[in-house]
């Protein structure tokens, strides 16, 4: 497979967000100063549900449970992750013409409400297992790593169930769409540097010792973690 490496790719965390273009009544602009800062009232998951149904489910699926291998599901994603990624797209700090257009029409309150809605949804179904042995290898690497090869267990940060950690903005990777997971993991590993950005640089370091076979095993596991 031919994999292009994006130099200085500003991937902030692990799972990206893709969706079809849409227009909301209250379009937002990045706040002055820190473009990732949000100023909003309390989260309103019910309002987020209406926004999601009208604007996001065409790509991410109803309730954020994607059925497209190349599109990440949003159901059950930690809110702090989504509240960072959407402003990053909105400020054009993350590459994606579609998502930059989408997020550019979101107000701060829209982002907070969408994040509240998606984080409360049940994670999408596991993707089919096509190679049980490969998945078993991935499960071992995810949970235990391989000390002899300096491979850190993914569970150290993402948790044994893969559900991430909201307090630290660590994304959920449970039942992640496999084609999408492959794209992002290889980019994290093969990009030379992320310029000191903490989360992506940590991912690059963690994945660097892994071979392609290791990577594909982890992808097989995380895409089918929970039945």
From TrEMBL:
The keyword Electron transport applies. Pfam families: Cytochrom_C. The keyword Iron-sulfur does not apply. Residues 1-25 form the signal peptide. SUPFAM superfamilies: Cytochrome c. It is found in: Periplasm. Gene3D superfamilies: Cytochrome c-like domain. Residues 43-122, 133-226 form the Cytochrome c domain. It comes from the Bacteria. Keywords: Electron transport, Heme, Iron, Metal-binding, Periplasm, Signal, Transport. This is C-type cytochrome. It comes from Deinococcus taklimakanensis.
């Amino acid at each position: 497979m031919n994999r292009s490496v994006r130099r200085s790719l500003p991937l902030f965390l692990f799972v990206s967000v893709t969706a079809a273009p849409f227009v909301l009544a209250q379009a937002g602009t990045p706040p002055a100063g820190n473009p990732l800062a949000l100023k909003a009232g309390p989260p309103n998951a019910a309002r987020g549900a209406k926004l999601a149904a009208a604007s996001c489910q065409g790509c991410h699926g109803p309730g954020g449970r994607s059925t497209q291998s190349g599109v990440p599901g949003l159901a059950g994603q930690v809110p702090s992750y989504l509240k960072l990624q959407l402003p990053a797209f909105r400020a054009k700090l993350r590459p994606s013409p579609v998502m930059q257009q989408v997020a550019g029409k979101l107000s701060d309150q829209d982002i907070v409400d969408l994040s509240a809605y998606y984080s409360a949804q049940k994670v999408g179904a596991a993707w089919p297992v096509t190679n049980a042995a490969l998945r078993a290898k991935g499960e071992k690497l995810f949970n235990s790593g391989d000390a002899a090869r300096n491979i850190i267990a993914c569970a150290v940060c993402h948790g044994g169930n893969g559900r991430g950690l909201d307090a630290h903005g660590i994304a959920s990777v449970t039942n992640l769409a496999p084609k999408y997971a492959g794209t992002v993991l290889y980019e994290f590993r093969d990009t030379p540097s992320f310029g000191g950005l903490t989360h992506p640089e940590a991912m690059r370091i963690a994945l660097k010792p892994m071979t392609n076979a290791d990577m594909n095993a982890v992808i097989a596991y995380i895409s089918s973690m929970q039945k």
